[in-house]
Write a structure and sequence with these properties.
This protein is an alpha/beta fold. The protein has a domain of 221 residues: Rossmann fold (3-Layer(aba) Sandwich). It contains eleven helices and twelve strands. Helix 2 packs across helix 8 and helix 9 packs across helix 11. It is globular and about 60 Å long. The N and C termini lie far apart (52 Å). It binds NADP nicotinamide-adenine-dinucleotide phosphate (NAP).
Amino acid sequence: MAFTPLDHLRGARIWVAGHRGLVGSAIVRRLAEESVGELLSATSSELDLRDPRATEAFVERHRPDVIFLAAARVGGIHANRTAQAEFLYDNLMIGANVLRAAQMFEVPATVVLGSSCVYPRDTLQPIPETALLTGPLEPTNEGYAIAKIATLELGKMLRRQYGLRVVSLMPSNVYGPGDNFDPLHGHVMASLIRKVATAARDRDDSIEVWGTGSPRREFIFVDDLADAAVFALKHYDDDLHLNVGPGNDTSISDLAHLIADVAGWSGRLEFNPDMPDGTPRKLLDVSRLTALGWSATTDLRDGIARTLAWYRDSMDRAAPSIEPAE
Ligand SMILES: NC(=O)c1ccc[n+]([C@@H]2O[C@H](COP(=O)([O-])OP(=O)(O)OC[C@H]3O[C@@H](n4cnc5c(N)ncnc54)[C@H](OP(=O)(O)O)[C@@H]3O)[C@@H](O)[C@H]2O)c1
């Protein structure tokens, strides 16, 4: 299984699992800049990755050169906290099935994604890659975290035991066009963009913001993450996962004010401390990625403006999937 990274993109058969999702669709956009041979994809209704036999059969039939695993059950703090069992089960199965199929059919390279929220709740800031598994997890997303950590560990063990090339990335909070804007199930950035855009449209004078506003988060624009994933595939080959983020963070309060400013809405932000804050801070130490020669290029204001424009455009088209009945 000798791997010559650039050869694999030129003329390669690349499977983006989760190609319709936030991250998967950005990876597809990024791959359009490479001379790939064939892009493979399947929706979750065509191929349920929780099914080991179906997953093996897909890999055996299509024999990809590269897999980007961007399929997962993903959600914000409310979704995670109220469906821990499903977040654990689905993500454990998806991770194990795809990696096992990659091993069985000797897929030359597989990129898997963890998340900064799977590091211990209270840990060094900025968080080095070596902080994984050094302390208790944030209780609101324990199910998701355990599944993601198991996937990363399986990737590491398959590398060591079978020489399988697995590149594991640990992104910070991701946002951008194509995010889940459901106020209950989406992540904080998309939920806030939706609330502010709706308030601006309806001329409301206030919105509710969950939590105290004090937690700090590091946001990476999704096209930057996709670029980092292609970069890591070409340039990174190590057991240890690689942190991916812009290397700076912002408080939820400052974020809400920035979104309001970008949207041109000057109403009141009402913080609701009865809703959970989650981990107080999770800033990644991205020095290993920077040393390899990659850094994020989209600044937060610009990324928010692009995401807001996409969301407003979607509202205009009145797509039912992103504007569900309240
Ligand atoms: N969003 C973030 O802030 C963030 C942060 C760090 C890491 N990540 C990681 O990035 C990856 C992608 O996240 P995302 O935000 O892009 O999620 P997303 O927008 O919810 O997309 C997830 C995709 O996974 C597919 N999927 C879900 N269950 C499946 C199943 N059982 N079988 C086959 N496909 C299934 C869905 O396919 P269909 O559309 O066909 O149903 C969907 O397109 C995940 O591994 C996540 O952990 C995300």
